[in-house]
Amino acid sequence: MLQFLVLFAVLGSGAVLSAQSSINGRLGAQVGVLESAWLTFTSGALLTFLLVFFFEPPHPMTLFTAPKWQLIGALFGVVYMLAMVFSIPRVGTAAATVAVITGQLLMSLLIDHFAWLGNAERPLDVSRLVAIALLFGALVLIYQSNRIQECSPQADPVEERT
């Protein structure tokens, strides 16, 4: 039952992440990619600081004593945010999101298979390979759909909404 609740929470987080990416993409197209990312990280830092200050229990390790390679995850978050804010106005929310999910799945399969980063080994099998092939197929279909729509005579969707 707990695993079901965790998966449901992650599914909801994915839905919120797509909405956030779309909102940030629109904001980035209007005020700039870096400004949009700055707003996201500043408000996130403030909220996180308050949560840590009031609710985080003590841990045996701190950010200053944690292995330095583990701190690089924060930089990856910045790369992700900038890539999404830049790409969504250009390729759309669906294409950007499926590309991100495809990249996440591919890397997570490699991490599981080779037990990288201290994770348990979960070897590649046929079902995992089919899953990545299906996601690549979804990415191709969404990309092709975008290309077809770009060729049809319509107003620029970014200009139309502003």
UniProtKB/TrEMBL annotation:
<keyword id="KW-0812">Transmembrane</keyword>
<feature type="transmembrane region" description="Helical">
    <location>
        <begin position="126"/>
        <end position="143"/>
    </location>
</feature>
<protein>
    <submittedName>
        <fullName>DMT family transporter</fullName>
    </submittedName>
</protein>
<keyword id="KW-0472">Membrane</keyword>
<dbReference type="InterPro" id="IPR006750">
    <property type="entry name" value="YdcZ"/>
</dbReference>
<feature type="transmembrane region" description="Helical">
    <location>
        <begin position="69"/>
        <end position="88"/>
    </location>
</feature>
<dbReference type="GO" id="GO:0005886">
    <property type="term" value="C:plasma membrane"/>
</dbReference>
<feature type="transmembrane region" description="Helical">
    <location>
        <begin position="37"/>
        <end position="57"/>
    </location>
</feature>
<feature type="transmembrane region" description="Helical">
    <location>
        <begin position="94"/>
        <end position="114"/>
    </location>
</feature>
<dbReference type="Pfam" id="PF04657">
    <property type="entry name" value="DMT_YdcZ"/>
</dbReference>
<keyword id="KW-1133">Transmembrane helix</keyword>
